[in-house]
Amino acid sequence: MKNLKATLLSFIGLSAVLLAGCNDKLTVLDPKGPQAQRQADDTMLLITLMGGIVITVVAILIFMLFKYRASKQSADYEPPHIHGHWLVETIMIGIPVIIVIFLSVVSVKSNYIVENVPEGYEDQEPLVIYASSSDWKWHFSYPEQGIETVNYVYIPANRPVEFKLYSFGPITSFWIPQLGGQKYAMSDMVTTLHLAADNPGEFWGRNANFSGRGTAENIFDVKAMTAKEFDEWVTEVHETADPITEEKFDELLEPGHLGKSTYTGTHLEFSPAPHHEHHDDEAAEDHSSHE
Amino acid sequence: MKEFFAQFAIPHPSLLIYIAMASIVFGTIALVAVVTYFKLWGYLWREWITTVDHKKIGIMYLITALVMLFRGGVDAVMLRMQLAVPENTFLEAQHYNEVFTTHGVVMILFMAMPFITFFFNFLVPLQIGARDVAFPRLNNLAFWLFFMGMGLFNISFVIGGSPDSGWTSYFPLAGNEFSTSVGTNYYMIALQIAGLGTLMTGINFITTIMKMRAPGMTLFKMPMFTWSALIANLIIVFAFPVLTVALAMGTMDRLFATNFFTTVNGGMDMLWANLFWVWGHPEVYILILPAFGIFSEVISTFARRNLYGYTSMVWSMIVISVFSFAVWTHHFFTMGQGAFTNSIFSITTMAIAIPTGVKIFNWLFTLYKGKIEMTTPMLYAMHFIPLFTLGGVTGVMLAMSAADYQYHNTMFLVAHFHNVIIPGVVYAMLAGLTFYWPKMFGFMLNEKIGKATVWVMSIGFVLAFIPMYITGLDGQARRMYTYSDATGFSFLNMVSFVGAGIMTVSFIMIVWNIWYSFKNSPRDISSDPWNARGLEWATHTPIPHYNFAITPDVTDASEEAFWDSKKKGTQLFKGKIEDIHMPNNSGQTFVMSVFFFIAGFAFVFSMWYLAIFGLIGILACMAYRSLEDDHGYHIHAHEVEEDEKKHAQKGGAK
Ligand code: HEM
Ligand SMILES: [Cu+2]
Fold first, then answer.
1. Nearest CB to A171: which of B170, B177, B312?
2. What is the ipTM of this complex?
3. What is the pTM of this model?
C-alpha cells in the first residue's frame, strides 16, 4: 500500500516539478506586458497555494491509510463511533474560508487592473484598434492611422492599446497570451480589451473560441515596435497599400483562410462596428450611441 | 423521391463513418437475430420493457450508461489520436468537430446522467426501506423518454449528420447560418426528449424520498446517498426547466427562423450562454453530489466506521445546491461583462470550494481510528480523494476571473473538468457498481482484476490529463483539430494519447472482469458480502420483487440502520407479513415514447405530416392513460411467506 501511495505522490510531485521547471518557458507564464504580468503573478500565487492544499490532503490521506489500515490492527478491534468535533470542524471550515477571502481580495483587485488601462500607462492616450473576426480571419482597423490589416497587427511598444472586439459571425475569442488574456468578440456588441507591450517583440495571437471548421488556423501575428518604427510603418502603408473598398472587404469576408494583407482606410467607414457597446463598469461614456 | 432520401445522407462522409454505419447495421441485425432465435421477445417485453420495478428500470439505465461509456470512449480515443502528433490527417476538421461535440454530449447526458439515475433507481427505495418509487409507471416513462432521446441523438451519426458546434452549442455558431446540417436539430430535440425524462425522474424521487421513508427514518437519519439523491433531484427540478426553455428557443430558431439567438434582427447570442449555463453549472452538481453520496457509503463501509461529520456533510450539500445556481457566469467571464460582475461571480464560485473542501476533510476523518480494508470500491475512493482535490483546486484557479482570461478555452480548462468528472463521477460510478454488483446479480466481481483496473485507470488518467494543464498554460487552445510542430505541444500531446490508451485498457479490464467473474465467482454469497451498514443490505440477494417482506422500522436505529441491527441487535422487521400491493406493468409508456421518437425524428427533418402523426400518437396515449383503470394487484401474505422461506433456504439475510 505504501509504495502505491508513493507512486501517486510522485506523480503529483512530478507535475509540480514540470510546472516549476517550465516556469519561464510556458507562454502564459512568460508575460511581455503588464496585464499578462498580473495574470502570471496570480497564476504562480495560485499554483503555490493550491499545491499546498493538495499536498496537505495527500499527507493526511497517506497518514490515515498507513496508520489505520486493517492489517495493522488486532482482529477484535472495533472502530469507535465518532460524530464530529467542534474544533476540528471549525478549523476545517475556517481555513478554507480564510483562503477564499484572501483570494477574493486578490481576484477583485486583478479584475479592475485587467479591465482598465494597464498600470503605468495611465497618462498616455491609448491606441485604438478595432479587431474583428470573420470566418476564419482577423481584421485590424486603425481608425486614427486610417489603415487596415488582415491576420497581423503591429503595435507600438510602451503605449496602451485598446482593442475593440467584434465579429462578423460566430463568437470568437481574441487572445494574445503574452500580452494578456482573452476576451470574446461577438456580432452584436463591441467588447474592449486593454493591453500593452513593455518592449518591442513578436508574439502570436489566435481565436481561442471554437467557431467552426477553420478555427484551428484562425491565428495572427503580433509585433510590438518602437513608436518611431510604428510611425514609419504607417507612412509606408500609406505609400504602398491599396485602399480597402467595400467590394474588396466583402471578398475578404468570404469564409476561408487568407494570408496577411494591408490596406489604407478602414472598413469601419462603410461597415461600422455594432452600436451596442459592452461597457466596463466605470467607462459608461457614450450611452447615446445606443439605438 | 431522390430529394427525400438526399436529406438523410451524411454531409461529410468518411471511411470511419461508413465502418461505424456497417457495424451498427450488423450489430442490430445480430441482436435481433439472437433475441428471435432464443425466443426472447416475449420475455423482454413482459419482464423488462414494460416493467415498473425500480430495480429493473435501474439496470436498464445501467446498461444504457455502460454502452454510452464505450461509445463516448471511442470518440475520446479518436480525439486524442488526432492530436497525438502535429498536423495529423487522421480526422479532418469537420469530423473532429463532430466527434468532440458528440463525445461531450454523450458523456455528460447519456453516460453520466443514466449512471447516476441507475443509482437513484436501484438504491433509493432500498435505502429508505420502500417497496418502490412514488410513481412507478412514471419511472418507466422517464426511462423510455430518456432512452428515446439517447437513441435519437445517436442516429445523427449515420442519418443526416452529427451536431458540430460543441456540447455547449453556442449560438450563432449553432444557428442555421453557420451550422447547416441537421446535426444541431438532433441536439436540440434529442436533449429535449431525454430532458423530459430527467425532469420526471427528479419529481419522482423527491416525492419518493419525502413521502416513502420507512417509519422512524427522519430526514437526518437518511443514508448519505439518499441525501445526495434528494439534493441532486431538487437541483434537477429547478435546473432542467431552464434547459427545456433554452432548447425550445433554439429549436424554434432553427426550424421556424425565429431570431432569439441570431446575429440579426435583435437576436442575442449571450442569452443562449446564460440560459445554457444556468442549467449547465447546476448540472455538474447533479452529477457530482450523488457521486459524493456513493463515496460516503463506500468509505464508511470499508473504514468500518460511521461517516465523520454527518450533519456537516448534509449541510455542505445543501449549501452547494443553492450556490450552484449562483455561479453560472464563470463560464463566460470573458464575454465582456466588466470587472464588477466578474468579481461577484468569482467570489461566489470560490465560495463553492468551501463546502466541497468540508466534504473532503470529512472523508479523511472518516478514516481516523478506522479499520481500513482496501477493497476495489475503497481503492476507487482513495484514488478519488487526491485526484479530485487537484481538480477542485484548479477549479479555484479558473474562478479567479482575471487569471481565467488566460485559462479559458484552453486545455487547462479541459484538464480541470476531466479532473473533477473522471475521478469524481466516473470513479464513483465504478466504485458503486463494484460495491452493489453482488446485490444486483448475486456474485462478486473479482477483486484482483478490480484493483488492477483502478491502478491502470489512475495511471492512464494522470498521463492523459496532467499534461493538458501544462499545454494549456503554454497556449494550447481547446477544440482545435490540429497544431503545428512549432508550437512545441507535440510531446505532451503524445503522452496524453498514451495515457488515453492506458485508460482504454482499464475499461476493457472492467468488461473482462465482468465476464471472468460471471464464469468463475461463487454464487453462494450471503446477502451482505461486504459487511455493510445501510438498509439496502438488509434484504435478500437476489432482491425479491417487493424488496422487503415487512417494511422496516428504524425508530430505534441511527442513520446506519442495518449496522445497528447487526451490532446492537435493534429489531428492523417488526410485525407480521401482510398482503403487499404492487403496481401493474404497462406497455403504454413505451408506446408513447416511441411516438416521441417518431415526432422528434420528424421535427429534425421538418417532416410535418410525420410530426403531426407522432404528436397525435402521444396525445392518444395520454388520453388512453387517463381513461384507464389500473388498481395494481396484491401479492398475498402466504405467497410472500413461501418466497421468504425459499430465500432463507438459499442462505439469505437476517
Ligand atoms: C471546487 C469546485 C469547482 C470550481 C471552483 C469550478 C470552477 C470552474 C470554472 C470557473 C469553470 C469555467 C472555466 C472557464 O470556462 O474558463 C469550470 C468549468 C467546468 N467545470 Fe468546474 N468547478 C468546480 C467543480 C466542478 C465539478 C464538480 C464538475 C463536474 C462534475 C465540474 C465540471 C466542469 C465542466 C464540465 C466545465 C467546463 C465546461 C465547458 O466550458 O465546456 N466542475 N469550472
Ligand atoms: Cu460551472
1. B170
2. 0.92
3. 0.93
